[in-house]
Amino acid sequence: MHIAARAGSGKNRGRPPAPELPFLMNAFSDSFSVALGLITQADATLWQIVALSLRVSATACALGAGFGLLLGAWLAVARFPGHAAVVGVLNTLLALPSVVVGLVVYLLLSRSGPLGSWGILFTPTAMVIAQSILVVPLIAALARQLVADALREGGDELAAMGAGKLLSALLLLAHARLAVGTVLLTAFGRAVAEVGAVMIVGGNIAGVTRVMTTAIALETSKGDLPLALALGLVLLGVVAVINLAAGLLQRRGAAALPVAAGAPA
C-alpha cells in the first residue's frame, strides 16, 4: 500500500499544480467587470486609443479609396498585353500580409531609407501610409468586379451616349454608390483590425501611435487584462457596426434594383 501510494504520488512530482477553475472564472469575471467600468466611465486612456485607431483607419481608407476606386475602374475597362496578369497580381494582393506592408514602409521611411528625410517613422502619418497600402488592393479588386458587372448591364447605353470607357466606369461607380459604400466599409474593417503594419511603423508609443490592436497585444503581455478586454470589446463593437452598416447598404441596394427595373424608359 505504501509502495503504491509513493508510486502514485511520484506521477505528479515536478509538475506545477493545475489552476483551479473557480479561480480562473473569478479572475475573468473581475477583469470583465473592470473592463465594462472603463468603457462606461469613459476612461481617458481607453478612448484616446480608440479615437486614434478610428482616425488613422478612416484617413487610410479615404486615401485608399481615391487610388483604389480609380485603379479598379481603369482595370475594368482597360485592355492591354498582360492585363490578366495584372488582375491576377491584384487579386493575390488581397491576402497581402500586414507585416510585409509594415516592413516595406519601415524600410522606406527609416533613416537609411529613400524617404528617411521625411522624418515620419513612428508617427500616425506612417501608420496611415501603411494602412492605405493595405486597403488599396482590396478596394481596387472589388471596384473592378463591380464595374465589370455593371458594364455588362448598362455599358452599351453609356457608349451610345458618347461616354468614354473610363468615364463610363466612373459613372457606373457613382451610380452604384451603395455597393461602393459596402466596399469602403469592408476596407475600413480590414484596416482597423490589423496589427502587424501599425506595430512596425508606429512603434506602439503611448499617447502617440498606440491603437486598439497594438494596445491589446501590449496590455495582454503586461497582464493588464481589464484594459485589453475593454479595448477588445470596443473593437468588436466597431466591427459589428461596420458589418451591420454593410448589410443595410446591401439590402437597400437589392431593394432598389426592382424599382429601377420597373421604372419607365
Automatic annotation (TrEMBL):
Residues passing through the membrane, by range: 52-77, 83-109, 121-146, 166-188, 195-217, 229-249
Main location group: membrane
GO cellular component, one term: plasma membrane
SUPFAM superfamilies the record matches: MetI-like (SSF161098)
UniProt keyword list: Membrane, Transmembrane, Transmembrane helix
Membrane-topology descriptor: Multi-pass membrane protein
Top-level division of the source organism's lineage: Bacteria
Cell compartments where the protein resides: Cell membrane
GO biological process entries: transmembrane transport
Domain (ABC transmembrane type-1): residue spans on this chain: 50-246
InterPro entries with a match to the protein in the record: ABC_perm_TupB-like, MetI-like, MetI-like_sf
Protein name in the entry: ABC transporter permease
Native source organism of the sequence: Pseudaquabacterium pictum
Lineage of producing organism: Bacteria, Pseudomonadati, Pseudomonadota, Betaproteobacteria, Burkholderiales
